Amino acid sequence: MLSPDKVVLPREGDEFARLSRTRSRIAVALSLMMIAMYFGFMAMFAFAKPTMGTILVPGLSLCILLGAGVIVGSFLLCLVYVVWANRFYDPAVRRIMS
Amino acid sequence: MQAANNPLAITFFFVFMSLTLGITYWAAKRTRTTEQFFAAGGQITAWQNGWALAGDFLSAAALLGIAGIITSNGFDGLIYSIGFLVGWPIISFLIVEPLRNLGKFTFADVVAYRLRQRPVRMAAAIGTLTVILLYLIAQMVATGSLIKLLFGLPYTVSVVVVGTAMLTYVIFGGMLATTWVQVIKAVLLSLGGLVLALLVLAHFDMNPLNLFSAAAEKYGTRVLQPGVKVAGSGWDSISLGVGLMFGTAALPHILMRAFTVPDVKEARMSILYATGIIGSFHLLVFVIGFGAMVLVGPEVVTKAGGGGNMAAPLLALTVGGNGFFGFICAVAFATMLAVVAGLTLSGVATVCHDLWVNVVRGGDAPEREQLIVARIATVAIAVLAVFLGIVFEGQNVAFMAGLAFAVAAAANFPALLLSITWKRFTTAGAVASILVGTVSSLLLICLSPTVQVDVLGKSLAAVSQAWWFVPMKNPALICMPLSFLVAVAVSLVTEETGAESSFREMRRRIMFGAARETVAAE
Q1: Most CB within 10 Å of its CB: which of B35, B77, B358, B441?
Q2: pLDDT digits over B215-254, tens only?
Q3: DSSP string, B82-104
Q4: Could you tell me if B519 lies within 8 Å of chain A, comparing CB atoms?
Q5: Across the interface, do A86 and B226 touch by the CB < 8 Å criterion?
Q6: Total-model pTM
């Protein structure tokens, strides 16, 4: 394992700043989507219990549907980020480094 | 109804113990450096780490506890299932890459990166150890009473057995053995959950909606609707959500696993796999909980004792017979072991790496010495965990797990996030934020109905009149913003030029750190 101060870091250029900004924007946007999705759900659970209790079809209430949706949605958002990072971010980082 | 008279449960248990001890023996020979002891030499693959993260995170509460809450209350139990997942995307978007590229063994490496080492490490150690001890107490007490219930072993013996097994894994096998214990446990738990859910669904034409309608027919549609069980007031629910989401994203033993993989891409992938595994498991728990409600019945579950924890094992007995019941009991046991081992290892990393090396020894200590300190710390934490487990026997400690999440959200998360995103963040700001987050969470919980009513047994009507009363069961909604506020305010009134000037360098390392090995090789 190498000590941090021996690591050679590439020079910083416009491309670095651009990529850094893009990454931050995507990370913040996805985080806000995640927070909106979950706290939207929790706010409805907390303050709109009758609506959340609506029975859509026998055996399925709105809250169960949305709850499962939050679980699936969390995974999908993660997937979106990972695909973006693997396909675009990592190659861009490698390009700047070389 | 005990697994003690169940030869299959005993067999499963011994197979698991021999397998994990065998792995520990194998891992011990590969654990010679601190890098190996704390991070398995960075040689764990993304898939292994994904399963290990799930093994670290899914406690017995995930299967037994939540299934029990669903069985007796219906939908409200699902709030926990959902809440335990939503922190993972946050780790993936904001935390994992800076963490992997800046850190070595603990998340304090990241917070202290630009700041003054000693004060930040000390504060971070207080935050980390508070989280870990609360979580360990909750796990040990739950473990003791569950093993008593499942296997008929006396409480003290159960706690000592768990403490000894976890000590063996960690002290000899370090992160490598702990990882494999967690992987095996997560696979067994997922498999058990999957089979249990399928066996339930087989009674309902493989359609979960038929199961939910059967529950509604038997116990009224209220079981499919939100109730008031998990949180008293609306804001209480939001506060619980804040604690679960941001607490998950700042749990020391989870963050520590980012250092076990070779690079940042593997770390990112392992979080995705973990999210998938944990999410799928919680969807299975929907079915298991309602399955226990319909096929076993809440009255039977309550009568079996253990505060509803018997729902899943009893369901296994009903739908899968004695053998499957034994399997689920053994899986529950394995689950507890894997979680406490991960918690202990992360406590040891804090004591050894943050406190000993960076505070006492000023940043450098010989490998041999570090490993000796690490092993002494392992024994100390294991003994402390067993001791506290015995002290708290029979106490209501269920709130401690939730409190651990709240402290993580209030003490660790703000400092971690600000250290990587805010240039003006200072040492004083970080220390104040961590301390205020820890102390305010502990203080508020003591003044809340959680401790006053549930633990001390006072009447809600009486305490709610007191001037100091805090009407929230979970303090995260107050403490996390407070901690952010303190961090910003204190940073603004202090100045740290060194921290500001190294900000750009840190941002570069966050981006390019992934390639540091490649660069060095050239």
Answers
A1: B441
A2: 999 998 889 998 876 666 788 889 999 999 999 999 999 9
A3: HHTTTHHHHIIIIIHHHHHHH-S
A4: yes
A5: no
A6: 0.92
